[in-house]
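A.,

Following up on our hallway conversation. Structure tokens first:
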């Protein structure tokens, strides 16, 4: 089976144009996370043009040479507040490399890499599917490349409080830790905030 590669949406836009990229994105399906599907279909191109976030299309070549979109992840850079009392002593020591504790608020204000969207394409046949861990490895491959040029070492993401999803991020393989929560007023949803050092 061919190896999956992550391609910056900006490179694909330059190579084949917006219409073909939109057609490729329309094949992405995520019935268990409609927010990710909506972003891919309706916002990923615009956000990349405005440099708000960059979506990576994870593709695989089939035996007959066709390109299959097997997953996506979207990366951005953002400041996030981490409350001192919500983290372990180990995390506190690591965090102090990248941010200073504000004594008044008892929070660290950290410039971090954000995994803003992350999802596998449910429309792909079983033969070509990618695992969540493989997808995360590809995201961190890009992040390590960026880290080499600009520094940094904190990654965070928001996730719904769903046991299976939370279990994936907190697994021994991925090792994200909960540090807070955020209420999305527009959706009326509570999101858990997780971070990881790399």
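Then the amino acids I'd put at each of the 198 positions:
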């Amino acid at each position: 089976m061919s190896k999956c590669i992550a391609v910056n949406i900006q490179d694909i836009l330059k190579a084949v144009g917006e219409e073909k990229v939109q057609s490729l994105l329309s094949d992405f399906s995520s019935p268990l996370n409609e927010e990710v599907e909506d972003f891919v279909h309706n916002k990923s191109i615009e956000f990349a043009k405005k440099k708000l976030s960059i979506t990576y299309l994870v593709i695989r070549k089939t035996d007959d040479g066709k390109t299959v979109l097997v997953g996506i992840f979207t990366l951005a850079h953002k400041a996030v507040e981490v409350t001192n009392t919500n983290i372990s002593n180990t995390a506190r020591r690591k965090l102090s490399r990248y941010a200073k504790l504000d004594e008044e608020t008892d929070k660290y204000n950290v410039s971090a890499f954000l995994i803003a969207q992350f999802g596998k394409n449910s429309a792909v046949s079983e033969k070509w599917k990618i695992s969540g861990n493989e997808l995360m490895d590809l995201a961190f491959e890009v992040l390590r490349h960026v880290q080499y040029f600009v520094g940094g070492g904190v990654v965070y993401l928001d996730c719904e409080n769903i046991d299976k999803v939370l279990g994936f991020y907190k697994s021994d393989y991925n090792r994200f830790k909960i540090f807070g929560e955020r209420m999305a007023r527009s959706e009326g949803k509570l999101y858990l905030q997780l971070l990881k050092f790399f």
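Residues 5-197 form a domain with the Aminopeptidase fold (CATH 3.40.630.30). Curious whether your intuition agrees with the design.

B.
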